[in-house]
## 1
Amino acid sequence: MDVWSSLMDGFATALTPMNFLYAVIGVILGTAVGVLPGLGPAMTVALLLPVTYALEPTSAFIMFAGIYYGGMYGGSTTSILLNTPGESSSVVTAIEGNKMAKAGRAAQALATAAIGSFVAGTIGTALLAVCAPIVVKFAVSLGAPSYFAIMVLALLAVTAVLGSSRLRGFASLGLGLAIGLVGMDSVTGQRRLTFGQPLLADGLDIVVVAVAIFAVGEALWVAAHLRRTPLHAIPVGQPWMGKSDWKRSWKPWLRGTAFGFPFGALPAGGAEIPTFLSYVTEKRLSKHPEEFGKGAIEGVAGPEAANNAAAAGTLTPMLALGLPTNATAAVMLAAFTSYGIQPGPQLFESQGPLVWALIASLFIGNLLLLIINLPLAPLWAKLLQLPRPYLYAGILFFATLGAYSVNLQAFDLVILLILGALGFMMRRFGLPVLPLILGVILGPRIEGQLRKTLQLSAGDPAGLFSEPIAVGIYVIIAVILLWPFAFRLIRRNTPVAPPAGGAAALAMDADDAVHSNHNAVYSNHKEQQ
């Protein structure tokens, strides 16, 4: 009942005329920027974060919620129309969605993605409202050793599954931790990696880092591969779904939601795994398996629902534990800290009205997206007809404006260019971006929890294992790090049998999905070149 009354108070705050207007603006801005090719939700949020700085905190976060869900919706539009996923979790949507668009069914693909996003987002936000306070009660009982272990788990688990190799993932993480060290040591007052530059004493602002790595890095990468071939958008028409489309979509929406939210809520979760699991499941359960790879609507409905449910689940560890599990949540965490608000176990007590207004605004933004964007889909398609030079020139302009507005220091523009070049080089050598962002965000906090743990144990490293939860997490970390080696050893000593039904066939379908994913991304790069 307490959750219900708090949520109703949040709706009362979010539905005031001014806050509702900010929600509408946020949804439109988030979708308009997110629908541009190559821009995922993380980059959308990073680019538009400075827009909220001049607002009162509650209004700012209501607008931010609209930007967040708007960016999620925009990413699915580019995946379907241009086969250009804004982030890794949208790749699966592109596999079938772009095939549907090329077959003249772009309207149906966009419609099932929009409605699936609404269904999954609504259920996921409801679960967020119920689960977050429970996670908070559990988190209050944790000490510094457990928090340190959880943060290490979040870093290693996310890093271990991204990129083409673990080496690249950990290289990216090392870069992020190094960037996070820049500034003055909070205990000794010693300056670290400032190179004698006083303006670096306070460290690098996460907004500048995120905008540089995402927006500037992507723009430089596209410029390096730019060709004179113009970018043509696929006609969308009026979005609508026939009776057969509805019948084939509603079960994948629900199953995708069931896959997405638990993975999103895990400190080391994310949306990539549930979207692939949803795709494989729908392929196995579909009455039209022959359509997969040619434009099956289930292959859009399920993964897109899983993606948006995972997005709602991501906010659970971010609000309750202060742990961002993906790049979008990392930028949202930066928004909280920019207002002097620290997400974590005390957030629901210290900032209760703001948090419940934010959760209520997620419901509102989700509904607004469905109402506004279904009839506006043809307009978003026209935005995609902009020539790439003009498109990315605009992105660079807004990136520069956003970075400068953080501290009003020209020095931030130098940092923006340097880190943008780093983002370009990371794309050039296949380093994933997320571990770097997580390293910048969590590095200083991990250092603080490690110091607190060692202070409590008088410098004895055994203090790291002083809580049962911490010990259990270290066991999980060991499994994550050692499992690939154990798996290779088992495969080497096990004779290969021809796959039959059940789990073996499911594994083969998973491999097919991965190969389709790589083929889709490769084809997309070839078209861009």
## 2
Amino acid sequence: MSESNESPPTTTHRPWWRLNWLGLLASAVVFGWALTPSLLPRPWLFEGIIAGLGAALGYALGCLLSWAARAALRGREPGPGVKRWAWRILAVAGPVLATAYLIAGIAWQNQVRELVGQPDEGFLTAFVVGAVALVTAVVALAVGRGVRAVFRRLRRLLDRFVPTWLAAGLSTVVLVAVLAVLVNGILIEAFTATMDRLYSGTNDTTAEGISPPVQPQRSGSPESLVAWDTLGLEGRNFVARGPSVAQLTTFSGRAATEPIRVYVGLESADDAAARADLAVQELERTGAFDRAVLVVAGTTGTGWLEPQSTDSLEYTWNGDTAIVGIQYSYLPSWISTVVDVDRAAEAGRSVFDAVHARWAQLPEGSRPKLIAYGLSLGSFSIQSAFADATDLTDRVQGAVLTGSPSFSEPRRTLLGTRDPGSAEWKPVVDGGALIRFGGTAADLEQPSNAWGAPRIAYLQHANDPVVWWSAELIWSQPDWLREPPGPARTDLMSWYPVLTFLQVTVDQFVGVDVPDGQGHNYGGTMPAVWDLVTDPPDWGEDDVARLTRIVLGQPIE
């Protein structure tokens, strides 16, 4: 019989709205995992987005398991009656399980809120979180199916010319390459360019109430080698603010000295080395090498130096201080971490090496105390000046390194080689002889043995997401999540691949939206820490307490 009358074979596809049973089941489970608590309270929008992404990831995992099961069973499937009952059970159990998870999620978030001293949120928030999660999951599913459709079309095209197995492999390679170019070469570059334009404009502005300093001890003053209009937004804030001589005198009851503040902006010199050289010239001009304390400070991505830290040092030493920093970026730290991290390291090395070289030329008996300081990405920046912990202790007379990102060295190595039995959030290094970790000044005073010199203080809260965020969270459980939780970290936090990474990533955006002493807020701790590390004369516990109230904006009793 002739085959000319037979119809050609057709390929049928499942409608796009059809869902996989095992995919939905896994989606509900992973949705619940995504709602579990992390380091800090999550706002409803972030909570919903992470939950929606978790549901989408769970669905993808369930579909993969379903495909593997069909392959193992060689196409054998349950009968129609079993399938109907399975879908009926899931239609009831799925929404019930999701609702239970949403309510539990609010309870979990309220526990974290209580730990950090924030008020509870109402259970009605669960419905808002659920709505955001649903929209996020649908969008993620649509994107995933779009990518799958492109893959299938590409595979069918290549299947005409090469074996099926090779067509599948080539399709995967081509699709991954195209997505990589799209994300890295187009989306990220466009985002970076947009942020660059936005924040470069902001960097050129001057905050309300800020004017050029008249004191010759400040960069940007008429006598300065650094022009005011080259300092950038945060540089201008730094040199124009701070406690006055009158405020220092009133606080101490003794005649105070005008504090020295030296800053070199991005536009002040062509590169990091030139900015560092200019900073040293400014230090010499202002007489900084004759002061009691000289602090080399790493700046954050925008060039910011935390006022609570810098002001506290100047109060502690009654103005007999000099602080120097240089700018390497005007982008926020979360963007600088991606695009400017090398420049942050270069800036830290350049400025510290230049200052240290000039400082080392002074007679030993007339050198100021040389202190390294940095907060957040600024801590990473200044630590980059040191090859290892030994180099750090050899070249400074003290250091205050606050909220250091996980990739900071030598901190990362110190955590990995900490004394056995000590926790990662509060590691003990060489018995606490020189280098100590803690979230408060009281933590730094433990262990109780003598703290030698130089004193190196690493401040890190157990619930600071900047400190604990790492790409390794995607695939690996860190020690700090295996150990009993530190202060204000919930014992309900668990590690889940990918999800914990997303949770801690989001936590970074609210790291400073919690009360002082929690998350990425260390300001109220600085008076006591400067006291411990620099050992100021004529200074006692009452002075620390009074200064702490000033730093926190509280009235002095």
## 3
Amino acid sequence: MTSWSGSMGMTRLITTSKCRVRAPERLRLALAASFLSRGWTAVLSLLAVPLYLRFLGVEAYGVVGIFVSLSAVVGLLDLGLGATLTREMAKLPGGQAQPPQARDIARTFELVYVGLALLVGGLGALLAYPLAMFWVTVDTLNRGDVAQALLLGSVALACQWPGNLYGAGLAGLQKQVLFGGVTTVLGTVRVALTLVVIRLAPSLETFFWAQIVAAVVQSSLLWCLFWRALGSDGRAPVFRLEALRDSLGFAGGMAGIALTTIVLTQADKLVLSRALSLSEFGVYVVASALATGLYIVITPLFSVMYPRFSALVHWGAEKEGELARQYHAASQLIAFLLVPLAVLLGVYGQEVLTLWTGNQALGTAGGWTLSLLVMGNACNGLMNMPYALQLAYGWTRLTLWFSVVSIVLLVPCVWWAAVKYGPVGGAAVWALLNLGYLVVAPQILHQRLLRSEKLTWYKAGVFLPAAVCLILAMLAKQIPLTDLSRGSVALVLLAYWIAMTVSLVVLMQQPRRAALALWSARNRFGK
């Protein structure tokens, strides 16, 4: 077993005939930037949710939840181009100016993406009125206001759409520090702008106008940064159809994964938005928003390691030893960061939801829903490094087939459970789906890729952290929190999280070595 600190503490250079990259420094800096930027943006968004609820109300926030689900559904129109551009850019040598064909690929993907943005906006606009009039069940909101809000949301989505491609390109160019700084600032501006306008004029219309302004600024700035990072040789980049044809297989697989993933992840929300009133659906959306907070530690690591894996795979089989080391380092790091947080949220779902929103009734209604959604997201998060490994090799078929089979078997279960048991039923199906994926998919993956690494991955990346944290949390659960104040509950839960994290530092090889490396660096700095 190799350690994360070991992979970060390497002093050798990874060299090839075409590129020379100082791996530890770049990887360390990229990870720090990715975690800080995405973590800050996600935490800020989570902190803003109670304020959104205060100014808009639970029912109006349910409309925001419908818009988020609709955004995910139309996300399948990405056609895998974002992930494909990341992979293509990751293959390029370092330097300020990239080969002309790289700029041609970028221009080709860009023009296709602009067309897709217009299509996304048009589809959202067409769906806004039917959804407001015939799909949702409103209590106090005016259906016309709901339709207008969804229409404005579609405009915001279209304006934000190109920025997704430019962000994927910057990630592939190993510009995570630059991208991280920009997204930190833009995320802060977006939340601050939204809170200011809905404080002055609390309505869904002002909420979505704020999203439109923020989306335009984000896409424009990322466009400038991406093309500047590519550099120029004085020749204007051109559209090349062969660039799309060469990427068709991988992009097609990614598009299929996107389609099936969207069906799986949004089926519960779409069903519940029809089966429940907007007020009830709002409770589910709030629980889902908090459960999605786990991606604070999942997404940053994936965004750094996926292009890293792609580069190692591209530069030849001699890098397989390095690939295995970084694969295990990243897998253990994500488990170390994710599992204590997930276990705490899962075991204390009602308490955390009440603490977060300040609403005891909402915490009681959504506690079990939050616990089950967190379980599903945690299992999904642990699979992110195996998924990144598949994409680095251009192997999309495994995830695609798993998703197709899951849809055939489980989507009817989502419908039945959501209708019969409400939010808890939909959340339970999501948890079981991802638990099954965690158990079965690595068995097949490691028959083809990094064949000798399966048991190591399961032992250190799943079983050990999960067992330790669950045992500690269940022991702590025997101590009642009912008589404590809100501040005291927060301090107790923080202490439990610290206890689980420290236990993993002691028992897991990777976090322990990372902690020792940090301590040694601190001592050297102090001297």
